[in-house]
Specification:
The protein is mainly alpha-helical. The protein has helices at residues 14-20, 69-101, 112-119, 123-138.
């Protein structure tokens, strides 16, 4: 049988190898110039599709798993308050958008009727939302005109 010989790789002397090691905070000296702009890595491609979040009518923020009625009441009340505040905030943004869309300084402003049609409101409600939005933008939402 023929025996295989391993290739011999020349090793650097120990002194030269030690000079190339840098300590934390030190910059390594390089003989090749570095590019002037940063190089960004490409994002890795997904090898699978992430699972869709299942929406189950039986599970609502984990309330169905709470056995203690006091804890259930407290958690449900917290959720109701949070949703109410989010709805109020969304209405304020609707009002500000309505005021901006009907601003007379805009060349492409909407009429109250066009705004009402677009937002699926009545024309009277659209006028009130525009007024409310203008008050919000001025910084006095509680002022009645």
């Amino acid at each position: 049988m023929a025996t295989r010989r391993r290739a011999v790789v020349p090793q650097q002397p120990r002194e030269e190898a030690d000079r190339t090691v840098t300590q934390p905070g030190e910059r390594a000296e390089s003989s090749t110039p570095r590019p002037t702009r940063p190089r960004f890595r490409k994002p890795a491609s997904l090898t699978f599709e992430p699972p869709m979040a299942s929406v189950d009518a039986e599970h609502f923020f984990g309330l169905e798993s709470l056995a203690d009625p006091e804890e259930l009441l407290a958690r449900a009340t917290d959720l109701a308050i949070a949703f109410r505040e989010a709805a109020d905030r969304a209405v304020e943004y609707q009002a500000m958008a309505a005021a901006r869309l009907t601003d007379p300084r805009r060349f492409d402003r909407l009429t109250d009727a066009a705004l009402a049609e677009r937002a699926e409101w009545t024309e009277d409600y659209a006028r009130r939302m525009v007024d409310f939005g203008r008050r919000l933008e001025r910084g006095d939402p509680d002022e009645e005109e």
